[in-house]
Amino acid sequence: MQDIRLVIALIAFWAFSQSSFAADKHNDGSSEKEFDPMEMIMHHIADSHEWHIISYKSKGVEKHINLPLPVILINDGLHIFMSSAFHHGEEVVKKGDTYYKLYHGKIYITDSEGSIEYDDEHKVTNEKPFDLSITRNVASMWLSVIIIIGMFLAAAKRYRGPPSAPRGIQSFLEPIILFVRDDIAYAQIDKHKADRYVPFLLTLFFFIWINNLIGLIPFFPGGSNLTGNISLTMVLALITFFVTNFSGTKSYWGHIFWMPGVPAPIRILLSVIELIGLFTKPFALMIRLLANITAGHIIILSLLSLVFIMKSAGIALVSVPMTLMMFMLELLVAVLQAYIFTLLSALFIGMAVHSEEH
Prior knowledge:
Blueprint: H1 2-26, H2 37-45, E1 50-58, E2 61-68, E3 70-74, E4 78-82, E5 93-95, E6 98-103, E7 106-110, E8 130-131, H3 136-158, H4 169-188, H5 191-194, H6 198-216, H7 230-246, H8 250-257, H9 264-310, H10 316-353
Antiparallel strand pairs: 1-2, 3-4, 3-8, 5-6, 6-7
Helix pairs in contact: 1-9, 2-9, 3-4, 3-6, 4-6, 4-10, 6-10, 7-9, 7-10, 9-10
């Protein structure tokens, strides 16, 4: 099912890129701008220095309400200002003796005119400052952390008093916590060692799940593609990588570099394969979460875009129900991807801490 969703997303992405190119050729010299599905999809799945709230038309003019976010740049000093200073990339911001321009979601160092230079391959050659800005994805991540901490603090209060039947947020969280502990941690890691890793696995599960759900909310403060960002999935996979390998027992490392009971020439070959396997495991974790979440966003947006591409209300009778069906499927995928990432992390840790007796 996941492979089918990825294939559909890739086909939709290619088809809309072709339709976008065709529309650009058709509208050369035309004052009316055609709907560009490729631009809309890329804008949604990419990060941004501002958080879009709502768009509306006033007297025939389209207006946008955005929440500006802090821009933090390091270049000949520390420069901090709000992203609204860029005016959606139309203005150049001067800080000290340096000019900055927001171009296609990235900040470049330019001259006073905001000139962007390209090389022969049409890649931007302007220098970029060291960017520590609070982007939409970062703000969304903080929002998810606040939600998770709020939920668990509210549930923890119920355990401070005399024992009673779970209720409220406690009744919602307790079965999930027990599921992660019993069916993921205890099932994959030696039980006398598993409790040490339960907090980490719970954090992984709820962090990924909550951020997946936030990304499915079609209005502010949702709509971010945090778990479809390779930077985040890479960091999560690296954390699992370090936890796994720093927890590895003597038996674990012995089976990687000098497995017992195997002829020496074969040991050398298998050691190379096992060493490569150390890095392919977190790589698979990273790509799986990234691809599935991003594919879901692309499919939903592609189905909605059909209404504007065909310019027909009739197509909405097919497009909208299919979009709702995909949205309901994505609610399942949101928890499924959190479960798979947590399960595989527990599996890798369990393999590393298992003490085999010969």
